[in-house]
Write a sequence for this structure.
């Protein structure tokens, strides 16, 4: 089962940096935004797009959904991805990097970079490679209003298990964070997330971006 509070703690440690955002130059933010707004939409129920052509990505995404969509402050936010790893990564240390550009209501702008081990941020469930169904995962929290219902997730016909680094084959990736008020401001964000096989320069697992408005629940 996904260690939700551990993930929240990691998330807080990263977002604490956002409390001290440096003032990024307008030119830098403009270049980042221009570079990101050229992608095509990722299949599924989310505002996420591809940053680059995904045809050679090591994880071929079939669908990506967010619960709730959009995510709100003072709430859990879960991302579920279905797809297939085209190669085994069991002998590697997958890497995750991100850049979050914030546009605050007072006109201030900031750029917050971060990186970590990929497996610290996700749960990956894989089934027998001869079975083309996905494993059912539990909702991230019993009180999470945006949790997908069990009817929306297929039950495995064969044994499944958590597996990270992943092997070649079908997989379901999930990640849950708690958007804590006071740490995540109300703002417009542009976020780029890239996972690579080994370090920053490794082969791309996936390369995604999204823009969204963080707000408290009405």
């Amino acid at each position: 089962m996904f260690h939700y509070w551990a993930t929240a703690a990691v998330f807080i440690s990263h977002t604490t940096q956002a409390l001290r955002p440096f003032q990024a130059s307008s030119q830098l933010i403009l270049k980042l935004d221009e570079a990101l707004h050229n992608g095509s939409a990722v299949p599924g129920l989310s505002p996420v797009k591809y940053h680059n052509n995904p045809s050679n990505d090591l994880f071929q995404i079939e669908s990506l959904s967010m619960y709730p969509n959009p995510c709100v402050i003072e709430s859990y936010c879960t991302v579920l991805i279905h797809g297939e790893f085209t190669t085994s990564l069991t002998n590697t240390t997958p890497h995750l990097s991100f850049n979050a550009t914030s546009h605050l209501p007072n006109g201030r702008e900031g750029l917050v970079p971060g990186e970590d081990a990929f497996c610290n941020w996700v749960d990956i469930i894989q089934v027998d490679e001869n079975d083309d169904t996905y494993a059912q995962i539990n909702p991230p929290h019993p009180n999470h209003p945006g949790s997908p219902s069990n009817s929306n997730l297929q039950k495995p016909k064969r044994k499944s298990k958590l597996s990270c680094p992943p092997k070649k084959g079908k997989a379901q990736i999930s990640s849950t964070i708690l958007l804590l008020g006071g740490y995540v401001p109300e703002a417009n964000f542009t976020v780029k997330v890239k996972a690579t096989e080994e370090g920053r320069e490794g082969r791309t697992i996936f390369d995604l971006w999204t823009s969204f408005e963080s707000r408290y629940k009405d």
User: Anything to note?
Assistant: The radius of gyration is 17 Å. The chain is about 10% helix and 35% strand.
